[in-house]
Write a structure and sequence with these properties.
Oligomer: heterodimer
Helix content of chain A: under 10%
Order of helices and strands of chain B: EEEEEEEEEEE
Radius of gyration of chain B: 13 Å
Number of helices of chain B: 0
Distance between the termini of chain A: 41 Å
Structural class of chain A: mainly beta
Strand content of chain B: over 45%
Distance between the termini of chain B: 31 Å
Largest sheet of chain B: 7 strands, mixed
Strand content of chain A: over 45%
Largest sheet of chain A: 6 strands, mixed
Shape of chain B: globular
Chain lengths: 108, 112
């Protein structure tokens, strides 16, 4: 069946470190989004990136649709980056299928 | 601010009761999606409405129903509540075709 897998499931880093989060998906996609769920539960849009590379400040993302994966890079981590990062994919039926998330903890 | 408004933010109710969650989509968006986030099931799609009509159904229980009104706001009705219905319920708008989806702040439902 259609699957979205994220790795690693958990990541603990010192403030200032860099990280790479991965999202693998099982089929061709119409849309791929990255979200940050903060400790209050809000889902914050990070990137809308069905293909290619985008950057926003310390964050950047790359999706290689032909190889069915996407990467989220976080540089110079801050404690406010803590939370759960979700990859969500639209496989052509408009609804989003979410991965299980990567829980990121940044230690001061 | 995503532009999607959900009320209430928190809801505590007893088993067997019925509740209604409300969502107002972003201005101009015709689609509304409902998602449930529980500890054991993760984030799962429940149902989609587009311009007042049901467009797609996911893992929505028969005890749950939704509708979208002419002004495009949507309501999710949860009845005969069980302890396992405790979850964070999100509404999203946009997303039709290849467009970006935006999520509301969620309603945290606790069934006691």
């Amino acid at each position: 069946g259609i699957q979205v897998e994220q790795s690693p499931p958990d990541l603990i880093l010192q403030e200032g470190a860099n990280s790479t989060l991965r999202c693998n998906f099982s089929d061709s996609v119409n849309n791929l989004q990255w979200f940050h769920q903060n400790p209050w539960g809000q889902l914050i849009n990070l990137f809308y990136i069905p293909s290619g590379t985008k950057q926003n400040g310390r964050l950047s993302a790359t999706t290689v649709a032909t190889e069915r994966y996407s990467l989220l890079y976080i540089s110079s981590s801050q404690t406010t980056d803590s939370g759960v990062y979700f990859c969500a994919v639209n496989f052509g039926n408009e609804k989003l299928t979410f991965g299980t998330g990567t829980r990121l903890t940044i230690i001061p | 601010d995503s532009g999607v408004t959900q009320t209430p933010k928190h809801l505590i109710t007893a088993t067997g009761q019925r509740v209604t969650l409300r969502c107002s989509p972003r201005s101009g968006d015709l689609s509304v999606y409902w998602y449930q986030q529980s500890l054991d099931q993760g984030l799962q799609f429940l149902i989609q409405y587009y311009n007042g009509e049901e467009r797609a159904k996911g893992n929505i229980l028969e005890r749950f129903s939704a509708q979208q009104f002419p002004d495009l706001h949507s309501e999710l009705n949860l009845s005969s509540l069980e302890l396992g219905d405790s979850a964070l319920y999100f509404c999203a708008s946009g997303g039709q075709g290849d467009t970006e989806a935006f999520f509301g702040q969620g309603t945290r439902l606790t069934v006691v």
